Amino acid sequence: MNTKESIPESVQPLLKKLFNDNDLVAEIMEKAAYYELPEDTVIVEIDSYIKSIPIVLDGLIKVMREDEDGNEILLYYLQDLSSCAMSLSCCMNYGKSKVKAITEVPTKLIRVPIEHMDDWMTKYREWRGFVVDTSSSKFESLLDAVDTIAFKKMDERLMQYLENKSELLDSSVLNITHQEIANELSTSREVISRLLKQLENLGEIKLHRNKIEML
DNA sequence: ACATTAATTGTGT
DNA sequence: ACACAATTAATGT
User: Fold this and answer.
1) What does the alpha-carbon distance between residue A189 and residue A63 come to, in Å, rounded to a whole number?
2) CA–C1' distance A190–C1 (Å)?
3) What are the tens digits of pLDDT across the range A55-100?
4) Which of A176, A199, A203, A209 is the most exposed place for a label (fewest CB within 10 A)?
């Protein structure tokens, strides 16, 4: 994590969208660290100790599972004013991260040091609510991911992946290679290439080098 | 503008 | 899954 900076004033109105309690907002402004991260920055490594919980202000972060030989699989995304359930649950028992988190696009976020967790949970209702809400929402995302991986065929997973990503990035053009998609869906590049070709023949998408256009 | 190289994509087994 | 061919983009001269 490079570029740590003092929190710009522009963050305050964002936090006020999330919390009504001005004391809480003020305390976050005081205690949190602010980061502007470029694309493809690893925020959390597997087995790293979680020392702060992130709140995404702007951008997109993907959360992945990774095994010992580096095989990855996409779990869910963090966007807008959301946080990561994994960090929250790790924070409770000062544990290691079981997931890897990486920025998908240039991202602005703040990190709240975990030592404030207990204190804030009792002091601010809204903080407790925030923690509960993000935990349950990310748990549901996780169940969706499990369903998809367990029950859906690869062609459906691919289409869902493309549509989801297009929506999250708010763009009908995705700059991505077949290999990168294969990594995220945990399959081989050839499979993705062939399925993409099928989708193109069906008129769902248009293929270019390093680029997929949604139709 | 052209040649070279590297990366990405396509295809058969 | 592997091997290799074909194509495209990037880079140097």
Assistant:
1) 21
2) 10
3) 999 999 999 999 888 889 999 999 988 888 888 887 777 789 999 9
4) A209
